[in-house]
Amino acid sequence: MTDPSSAATGTDASTYVTAAEHAQGKSGKPRSLWSDAWRDLRRRPLFIIAGAVIVLLVIVALFPGLFTSADPNLKDLSRSREAPSGDAIFGYDLQGRDVFARAIYGTRWSLLVGLGAAVVTVLLGSIIGLLAGFYGGWLDGLLSRVGEVFFGLPFVLGAIVILTMFRNAGVDGALPIVGVVVLSISVLSWPVAMRIMRSAAIAAKQQDYVKAARALGAKSSRIVFRHLLPNTLAPVLVYATIALGAFIGAEATLSFLGIGLRDPAVSWGVMISDSRNYVRVAPHMLLFPAGFLTVTVLAFVMLGDAVREALDPKLR
């Protein structure tokens, strides 16, 4: 029997859907937090711009030969500190090396340090924070106090101590030095990820689905990895995205101080360090690598802000 109100308006009641049906989408399955976030992100210009910049940087890092044929370590002292020209659009540095080629190849090393530090920091901090938040009690107190000790260490001072110690131990070569820099950044940064994950785990373990899993006799390991972990990843993921850009800036800071990467590794921080005494006579040596660094950090911060707004329903 037709609803009189629908007949009066010329529509059928079956054409109306509830909010729950709308949330299920065309497939008939409920959309998850991640699918909703992806739908929201695709509509954000900030995310699209930041994503495009990051994709371009990844391509540059993986295939630098597509953007320059010059050798970043080829020295020609006759061209020392030459200004940008047709031969080298970014000019030459103090030792006559092509600044554009070095900026292109420096993308690989800078992103490698940032990505490595972000992965190690998030993995270490998330595991410790998840255990502390889920089990609580004396374990939570112990892990929290250990995190506070590392959190209280000044970043630059701690990095100087760690990197100097490894340097005195004879660590040399591009990849070993990268590993040491990643380790030093991660050791001093994991407490932030630990605090975020701990707070998320404490809130999540009070939810009904965790209590139901306990009542059904699920083991602690199953509750942690099947129920808690998927529902506590969002805030840590946001932190990792923003921290990746911050860690790239941290590598540049350490290299500028002379304790981070060094030749034969090429990074934007190394280039900025090489140009610090020649800013007035050869500003191009500083401006171009600093520009690459600024754009990269800004892109990751913009991406992190967009992801945070998409994953937090309160900010939509």
Automatic annotation (TrEMBL):
Membrane topology: Multi-pass membrane protein
Classification via Pfam families: BPD_transp_1 (PF00528), OppC_N (PF12911)
Coiled-coil boundaries: none
Domain of life: Bacteria
Spans through the membrane: 46-67, 109-137, 149-167, 173-193, 236-261, 281-307
Keywords for this protein: Cell membrane, Membrane, Transmembrane, Transmembrane helix, Transport
Chain ranges of the ABC transmembrane type-1 domain: 107-304
InterPro entries on file: BP-dependent_transpt_permease (IPR050366), MetI-like (IPR000515), MetI-like_sf (IPR035906), OppC_N (IPR025966)
Subcellular location as annotated: Cell membrane
Similarity field: Belongs to the binding-protein-dependent transport system permease family.
Protein's UniProt name: ABC transporter permease
Organismal lineage: Bacteria, Bacillati, Actinomycetota, Actinomycetes, Pseudonocardiales
